[in-house]
Amino acid sequence: MRTSLEMVVFLYYNELMAKATKKKAALSPIEALEASRNSRVIVYFTGDRKPQPFSTLVGIDVLPAFKAVLKKIGNTKKITLALYTNGGHLDTPWPLIHLIREHAEEFEVLILEKALSAGTMIALGGDKIVMTPHSFLSPIDPATNFQDEENQKMKRFEIEDVIGYIDFVRDRIGITEQQALMEIMKDLTKEVNPTRLGSIHRTHALVRRLATKLLSLHKEPVSERQTKEIIDHLAQKLFSHSHLINRKEAKEIGFDNIIEYADKATEKAADNLMTYYSDYLKIDEEFEPLKEIGEKEVKKEIPLSLAVVHSKDLKYDFKANCVITKAPDPNGNPGIRVDMKSKWEKI
């Protein structure tokens, strides 16, 4: 039998344990990752919902959202950027990394499944790149789409295509005479406008310069040899812009100590975060305007969230107001028009 005092203590202890258990169970996905990394977490997730107009990329317009989130966090010892993206604009990684580093002594990037192209550039700015078995980086060599003036079709072009072609002619076929190489270049410029070739070359040089500068920001200095090895692989030696680099290969191509394998707690938290934001942005659901508007309505407005910058204290969504209107063609056949206006909004 317990005394009255013992019973009071017992009940009080049980109440404390219940509250602690409830609090632990109620951790948000961001809070769970913060606990596993012992850091403040910011999620930058650009959605890749289909079709293409409903997907988003890294862009310079995200900086005000990051500024607000970072001001809310204040100066802190460590920030973890949980990143998911297919890539985007090259003018974003440099100012974004500097903005984050102004608020943290240590900075790491956790890859949520993929951080491709410009996403890989952002990852280069982290003291550590934390990867799970499901994480991928990609090459950073520039690629562009342009319209073929002859058949009016869009073509994809990479500077490495040109370098590979010239290397093939010179090294494999054995044409080294200068005049012959000039004739080959003339044929090449018939395929691709010389101005466009020059533009892509400048972008290629910019990518290498930015990557070098981002690696130079690391708390533990990255040697010139290691920097060159990383950039040579990312910008040239992997040959395909769509090649996916897992964490093992990343270590092999020069990243070495920069790559950190996620421990079990981090891996679980990252998986939960990925699941949460996949559902939040509905990236696995194709947006079907005809299905959304239905048979009875002629016009419908649908609010969509297409990307996020979230911390546990402050959240911004890239919001799109999607207006779907039924618009039959001149012959009376069913048609539809989709208009969208989008911007970053505090939620």
Can you walk through the features of this model?
The strands form 2 sheets. This protein has an 8-stranded mixed β-sheet, with helices on both faces. The protein has a two-stranded antiparallel sheet with strand order 5-6. The longest helix has 22 residues, at 4-25. 45% of the residues lie in helices and 23% in strands. It has 12 helices and 10 strands. It has a domain at 4-138 and 244-346: 2-enoyl-CoA Hydratase, Chain A, domain 1. With 347 residues, the protein is α/β, with parallel strands linked by helices. It is flat and about 95 Å long. Helix 3 (63-73) packs parallel to helix 4 (93-101), helix 6 packs antiparallel against helix 7 (178-191) and helix 8 (194-215) packs antiparallel against helix 9 (224-237). Strand 5 and strand 6 form a beta hairpin.
Which short descriptors sum up this protein?
347 residues, alpha/beta, 2-enoyl-CoA Hydratase, Chain A, domain 1, eight-stranded mixed β-sheet, 45% helix, flat
Structure summary:
This protein is α/β, with parallel strands linked by helices and 347 residues long. It is built from twelve helices and ten strands.
Secondary-structure blueprint of this entry?
Elements: H1 4-25, H2 29-37, E1 40-46, H3 63-73, E2 76-85, H4 93-101, E3 104-115, H5 118-124, E4 128-131, E5 143-147, E6 154-158, H6 159-173, H7 178-191, H8 194-215, H9 224-237, H10 247-255, E7 259-261, H11 264-281, H12 289-293, E8 299-310, E9 315-326, E10 336-346
Parallel strand pairs: 1-2, 2-3, 3-4, 4-7
Antiparallel strand pairs: 1-8, 5-6, 8-9, 9-10
Helix pairs in contact: 2-11, 3-4, 4-5, 6-7, 8-9
